[in-house]
Amino acid sequence: MDVQAIDALLPQTQCTRCGYQGCLPYANAIAQGTPINQCPPGGTATIQALAELLGRVPLPLNPDNGVEAAPRVAVIDETRCIGCAKCLPPCPVDAIIGAPRFMHTVIAQLCTGCELCIAPCPVDCISMVDLSTQSVPEGPPSPSANRARFQAHEERIGRRAAERAALLSARKQLAYGALPDEQ
């Protein structure tokens, strides 16, 4: 089965509630026979679409993965944020902006509602609220926009890791010099 077609039906929240490290790994697993009812953000509509695509029987959402809910976004209580920046790396779409020792905020129009920023926050200043309570008239971001932002996030992380590795290698070479050949 075409993994891209499966992935296109997933909401691209990258929330990991399905038990996989993102929507594409879950799409790969579905193509290999994993149940199609593991995605709470996609809910019934996604399960139905996957069932039609794959010719499978639609199943109710697996409660072990969560419950279907209205779209939600993260909100940071600015009075409690200490600027630790621990919420920035886990955001799969870079919807949180801020800098160390400065207050952070969530760009509601970009937030996928994945909840991955909540656990690392040491002061519990992040909460999830219904998207309808925020001033986002266009609703949640589209799956294709989520996918593009996630891919850009992953590319940036990879680029930074490669740059750090190259810098470390150069520093080691300067510090230790070229090792003499053994004779």
Word description of this protein:
This protein is mainly alpha-helical and 183 residues long. It folds into 2 domains: 3-65, 3-methyladenine DNA Glycosylase II, Chain A, domain 3 (Orthogonal Bundle), CATH 1.10.15.40; 70-175, Alpha-Beta Plaits, CATH 3.30.70. Helices cover 34% and strands 8% of the residues. It contains 4 helices and 4 strands, in the order αααββββα. The chain has helices spanning 3-9, 23-31, 43-54, 143-176; strands at 72-76, 96-97, 105-106, 126-130. A two-stranded antiparallel ribbon has the order 1-4. Strands 2-3 form a two-stranded antiparallel sheet. The N and C termini lie far apart (57 Å).
Strand percentage lies at: 5-15%
What is the architecture of the largest domain at the second tier of CATH? 2-Layer Sandwich
Q: Mind telling me the CATH class of the largest domain?
A: Alpha Beta
Q: Which regions contain 5 or more consecutive residues with pLDDT less than 50?
A: none
In the CATH hierarchy, the third-tier topology of the largest domain is known as Alpha-Beta Plaits
Number of domains: 2
| CA-atom Rg in angstroms | 20 Å
**What oligomeric state do these chains adopt?**
single chain
Biggest β-sheet, characterized?
A: 2 strands, antiparallel
What class do helices, strands and sheet pairing give? mainly alpha
Number of helices: 4
- Give the neighbour order of strands across the main sheet: 1-4
In short:
The protein has 183 residues and is mainly α.
Describe this protein with a few key phrases:
4 helices, 2 domains, 3-methyladenine DNA Glycosylase II, Chain A, domain 3, 183 residues, Alpha-Beta Plaits, two-stranded antiparallel ribbon, mainly alpha
